[in-house]
Every structure is written in structure tokens, then in C-alpha cells.
Amino acid sequence: MFARVAALGVAALLIVAPPSPCDRIGELADADAFGAMNLPAVSSSEGDVVAPVATEVSEANLPNTNLASASARPANLPQDDMAPQPRLAALDRQDPAVVRPAPSEPFGLKSMPWFSGDIFEKWTSVNAAINADRKVLARCREDMPACPPAARKFLAVIAAGLEQTGRARVGAINRAINLAIEHMSDLAQWGVDERWSPPLETFATGRGDCEDYAIAKFVALMEAGVPAEDVRLVIVHDRNANDGHAVTAVYIDDGWVLLDNRWLTLVDDDKMHRMVPLFVIDQTGVSTYLRTPANTAALASASLGIPLAN
Known about the structure:
By secondary structure, this protein is an alpha+beta fold. The chain has helices spanning 2-8, 25-34, 117-142, 149-162, 166-180, 186-190, 199-205, 210-223, 293-304; strands spanning 111-113, 182-183, 207-208, 231-238, 243-252, 255-259, 267-268, 275-282, 285-289.
């Protein structure tokens, strides 16, 4: 069957169901990942931890799964004029003298750099805007009265995170961003199928879809002192929704946790079996996960419009 899928190519993606709340990110990821399907397969003994298992973490047992509404905005978000605290050099490590081994990628799978396709182009464009946003944030710290309103709001979220330590800091930023943004598709907001926005644009409009939440968290975590090498954006295929999705991943307590705009809970990557990782993005650029039985099956299912079993 996989030979048939490869022959259908990207054109087969046109028969999938209408775009999800993340607009066309599923189509972009699946189309790009078809180029990776010819890479050598990685067997389950080399880390294919996303194959179906008996214990499933699903939206049904995760609280606060429907956060994408204007009524979800919190009454206790920090005020715009809250002065941000100094950045930390690291995420409150117990002993700075202890050198940790370099973390593996989220989901424990192997990856390789990727330099083509829609995901690469979207990231290249938004990353330039992210760098510009971070310069604005740096200037705001020096001259808060001249700081744009969107930057003040974003700095308030960062400051709220800095009031916490460790995993609580990650949770505070995840919660604040989930509740500060009203979910809206790119088509409804911008009149285009897919647009990746930098944090200050998202906070200026107060609206965005899954990758906009994920990008804002990616930047906020680093601005709050989480080392850049411990933060990722991950493009996944959600087997429950049978569509693409974007989440943020943070390495903490010797493992990766996932931050999702659909719930407030932080979930360890090895518990999120509904997600099949396709691409991972860090400060160095885009990488594609090497093909495994699970992600090959996910791509085949997406291209043929056939849901995978949960």
C-alpha cells in the first residue's frame, strides 16, 4: 500500500478532509514529509516510541481541552505595566556545576536537517520576524514607556513565568499564552490558508491558530531563561484528529514535556501516543524525523483520508 501512496504523491493530499483548526499545517507537513519517506527506515528498536500502546493519553482525560474562545481569557493575567524580571541563564538547575548530557529530540526519535518544502520556508520567514521581535523586547527592557502594547503584554507573560521555578515556570507560560490568545484560523483572520506569525503580531491581534500559540511559547520560554537547546517546535500528525498539529516541547527534569494550545496540562512526550512527530524545529533550523513504521503509516493514512486506529 505504501508504494501506492508514494505514487499518488502530493496530489493525493487534495482528497483529505477540510482543514482543521490549524488550517493547512497538516497538508504542509504531510506534503513535505513525503520527501522524507524515501529515507532509511528506523526500526522500533531504535526509538519508535510512538506506535500504539495500551495506555492512551487523549483529550477525554486531559482537562481544559477547549480553550480556543474569547471567554477563556483570564481575569488574572499580569497587567501590561508589570515590570519584567531579569532573564535567567538557565531553568533553575539544581547544581550549575552538573553537566547534563545533550537531550535527545522529543519523542526519542532520530532526525536529520531539512532544507526544503513549505515547513522549511514558513519557518525561515517567521524566524526572521522572531529575531526582530526579540530586539523589540530587548529595547523595551531598557525603555518600558516606549514599548509597544503587544510587547508589554508578551513581557507580562514572560514575567509571570519568571515568578515560578522549574516545571511550574513552563506551566505558567503555557497557561498564560493559551488563555491570552483567541483561537482563529488563518483564513478567517488573514484571508490566507496558512500564515505563521511571530509573537508580537499574535499578541497585537490577540488571535492565532496552533502554530501561532506554539511559536509564542517557543520564544517566551527562551526569553524567560530556558536554554535555547532545551526548546523545540514539533509538527506532528494527531492520530485522534487525523490531521496535522503544532506543539512546543521543553526539556526539563531529564525529559521532554509537550505544551499544547488545546489543554493546560503539561504532558510527557512518551505519554502522548496520539501524536506522530514529523518535523522538529530548534534555534538551528528544521529537521525531519527519520521514517519509522508509525510515521510512515500516519502519512499514508493522511494522504488517503483514512483515519488511523487510536
